[in-house]
Amino acid sequence: MKYSIEELKEFLKPLISEKRYNHSVMVMEEAKEYLKKYANNDREFYEKTIRAALMHDMAKEMTQEEIKEYIKINSIDLDIDNPVNKPLIHGIIGADKCIKEYDFDEEMANSIRWHTTGSTNMSLMDKIVFLADKTGRENLLPTLKKVREKAFIDLDEAIYYYIEENIKRLKEKNATINQKSIETKNYFFKKLNKITKF
Ligand SMILES: [Fe+2]
Ligand SMILES: [Fe+2]
């Protein structure tokens, strides 16, 4: 791997606020907790996953102008004016930037790309980064505590539970639900064979 964690931290710092930087480090630390159980002594997998976790929000504080410009220069097919896409933008741009600027491979970039909504066919790395982002926080609310407990038992169950709760919450607020979240939920619903379990 081209860059050490310390080097990546130095790159990350000026890109985001202190608060988000601290969040990023906490997500990496949380990913380490999950990796204790799931990395299977695979050192390379471990190193890649913690880098993806650290950098997952690196594009979150880009301005609308910077995003527009980046999309144009890099020919990224993404409608940033559609509010439904809003939660996805920083993952998609962050993934692209990490490949081009920080020597990430596709596996690492993919974990960043869909960390907000999850996706179908998530890899082990995708799942760890997704969940660490949700549970690597101080003072977890009961739902997130439960997500974390589940994550140490079964990552798929934890993701399904999180997304289901999140969609419920958004519906109550009459907020828009991203199509990608629904796809993820349906994917895990089928994968976990939920239909036979009621
Ligand atoms: Fe994010
Ligand atoms: Fe995050």
| Distance between the ends | 46 Å
Low-confidence stretches: none
Task: Quote the beta fraction.
Answer: under 5%
Helix proportion range:
55-70%
CA-based gyration radius: 16 Å
Oligomer: single chain
SS-based class: mainly alpha
What is the number of beta strands? 0
Associated small molecules: fe (ii) ion
CATH superfamily: Hypothetical protein af1432
Main pleated sheet? none
The number of distinct helices, counting runs of at least 4 residues, comes to 10
The name CATH uses for the topology is Hypothetical protein af1432
Characteristics of this structure?
66% helix, 0% strand, binds fe (ii) ion, Hypothetical protein af1432, single chain, 198 residues, globular, mainly alpha, 10 helices
Structure, explained:
The protein has 198 residues and is mainly α. The chain has one domain: Hypothetical protein af1432 (Orthogonal Bundle), CATH 1.10.3210.10. Helices cover 66% and strands 0% of the residues. The chain is built from 10 helices and no strands. The chain has helices at 5-12, 18-38, 43-55, 64-73, 86-102, 106-113, 124-135, 142-151, 155-172, 179-191. Bound molecules: fe (ii) ion (FE2) (2 copies).
What's the topology here?
Layout: H1 5-12, H2 18-38, H3 43-55, H4 64-73, H5 86-102, H6 106-113, H7 124-135, H8 142-151, H9 155-172, H10 179-191
Helix pairs in contact: 1-3, 2-3, 2-7, 3-6, 3-7, 5-6, 6-7, 7-9, 8-9, 9-10
This protein binds fe (ii) ion (2 copies).
